[in-house]
Amino acid sequence: MAEREEVVLTRNVNVVMVPDGHTSTLDKGELVTIHQALGSNYTVVTAYGHMVRIASADADALGKEPPPQPALASETDAQTIEQNCWDVLRTVYDPEIPVNIVELGLVYECKVTPQTNDPSKHTVNVMMTLTAPGCGMGPVIQGDVEKAIRALPGVASVAVEVVLDPPWSRDMMSDVARLQLGLY
User: pTM, whole model, 2 decimals?
Assistant: First the structure.
């Protein structure tokens, strides 16, 4: 989103405070400025200067439609599920950074394993990190990853592990991320 947009909330809405990850509520009639509308959530700044995240399920409170989901293959073989996982991981954003977590270099591994009792169902294990240890939004981002993958066809279970070793650094970002953030 290139231009900031001021919006008056049409109803009360639950939010997650950025960067600490605590939950709160904004009231109907409050003025907010949309800071980022990427992935499946909105990052807004309140009239009091607080940055908060609004889930796509509450887009209507901003007068918006939920963002479209990526087109995914419907097959349930391990290779297709892994590709679908990477596609939905690219829809997950840190609410403060306008680059998805894959391009930021936060996802170290995505492993898909067929379940022994039903090979059409799979277990997905994701190993990821955060831009900073102790990031208050870490559990929120971790939850976004789990929710996005759990909704995929053929996925029976998901485990998302946040690791801090090796620690994240800017060197882990893709060239696309560096360009988006103006780091070249």
Answer: 0.89
The CA distance from 97 to 104, in Å, is: 9
Structure-token pair, residue 30 = 């409050």
DSSP H or E segment with residue 157? strand 155-162
Closest CA to 100 of 67, 124, 62, 61: 67
Which ranges in the chain are annotated with CATH 3.30.300.130?
A: 78-180
Q: Which residue reads 């169902």 in tokens?
A: 121
pLDDT tens per residue across span 106-156: 999 999 999 989 988 999 999 999 999 888 999 999 999 999 999 999 999
**Does domain 78-180 bear CATH number 3.30.300.130?**
yes
With CA atoms as reference, report the closest residue to 121 among 148, 152, 144, 159: 152
Neighbour tally for 140: CB within 10 Å: 20
* Cross-strand partners of 14: 25
| Structural domain 5-62, CATH architecture | Roll (2.30)
Closest CA to 114 of 78, 164, 141: 78
Q: What's the pLDDT tens digit per position in 1-58?
A: 457 899 999 999 999 999 999 999 999 999 999 998 888 899 999 999 999 999 999 9
3-state secondary structure of 7: strand
Phi, psi of 86 (to 5 degrees): -60, -35
